[in-house]
Amino acid sequence: MSKKIITISREFGSGGRTIGRQVAEKLGVSFYDKELIEQVAAKSGLAEKFIEEQGEYSPAQNRFAYAFVGRSINGMSVDDYLWSVQRKIILEIAERESCVIVGRCADYILRDREDVLNVFVHADKQKRAERIVKLYGESSKAPEKRLMEKDKKRAINYKYYTEQEWGKAKNYHLSLDSGEFGIEKCVEIITELAK
Amino acid sequence: MSKKIITISREFGSGGRTIGRQVAEKLGVSFYDKELIEQVAAKSGLAEKFIEEQGEYSPAQNRFAYAFVGRSINGMSVDDYLWSVQRKIILEIAERESCVIVGRCADYILRDREDVLNVFVHADKQKRAERIVKLYGESSKAPEKRLMEKDKKRAINYKYYTEQEWGKAKNYHLSLDSGEFGIEKCVEIITELAK
Predict the structure, then answer these.
(1) CATH 3.20.20.80 fits A5-194, yes or no
(2) Which residues are paired to B99 by β-bridges?
(3) Which residues of B touch A189 (CB under 8 A)?
(4) Strand B174-177 vs strand A174-177: parallel, antiparallel, or unpaired?
(5) Minimal Cα–Cα distance from A68 to chain B, Å?
(6) Model confidence pLDDT, tens digit, residues A145-174
(7) B79 pLDDT more than 80
(8) How does DSSP classify residue B168?
(9) Cβ contacts (< 8 Å) between A174 and chain B: which residues?
(10) Would you say B177 and A180 are in contact if contact means Cβ atoms under 8 Å apart?
(11) pLDDT digits (tens, 9 = 90+) for A130-147
(12) For range B115-143, the mean pLDDT
């Protein structure tokens, strides 16, 4: 494909991860999400679960990180260390192979490359609420509240590390409403544009 | 087509108007831009040139409107009168026929309809600067400054009348970087998704 790497940023519950996985399958390239986290964990020595939970949240929101106040790894805060390890791994992957990367500010990290297609996937609140209940089940919190909290965290984290606005059309080559078009059509459009 | 109306919001110089016209041609539907302005003018009795210049700018920026301070039409300020006439015409058109409408907050005005596809077209500053110099010629102002001023006005106007953020991916079903994909490809994607 003419675009070597596709990054997918997504609202919680929009199906962005599913879309990313299917695009990777269609294009026959690697898919990085949990896999990426595992690599980060292996390289950084930080517990995998901790990274999974905290990797997309900025220090301001990261309660767990307060337990580490005053601690540092290689002279950095836990969060900044985690960010720098993730960044390094994403740059290495992009250099090495064609792939789809979901989340982790990969669009920003790879901004100096010409061969990256940056996609943002969103959907209206109702459709996302239905999706997360179907996928992750009910919880004591209303699904709308779960959506809001997760998206807010993603937005703050993105802003903290990139100084850009999360979800602003200009930051991406393509933004799609998956609730409007459906997962399949989104996969089709992204695949077509990456070729 | 399953979508009766396509609205196109666009950054200045992104080619959004050209894309809109070509989509309308491909789908065999009406195209509203200057045509819309003419209708507004005819209905409102306001001079066509005035509407063309001021129709997308909010009162706060509208120097010409200061000349009308204290004046009102049908009990409204000139700007609000203009907005209400444009709004009414856009609603009438949407009721009447399939079409492509560029600008004029049509996405917001038609938000209660299910048969509207809302598109945002953007491109990086350099590509837009090249395009406006090519299309409209040089001027005493640097093209980057012309872009910034025009987009700022559109954003303020959009916010004023819609209370929404201009250029935020969530407000549109589809956002496209025309500098990345080219006019032709954008036309193709929009046409495909409208069907």
Answers:
(1) no
(2) B5, B30
(3) 189, 192-193
(4) antiparallel
(5) 36
(6) 888 898 888 889 889 888 888 899 999 999
(7) no
(8) B
(9) 174-177
(10) no
(11) 988 888 887 778 888 888
(12) 90
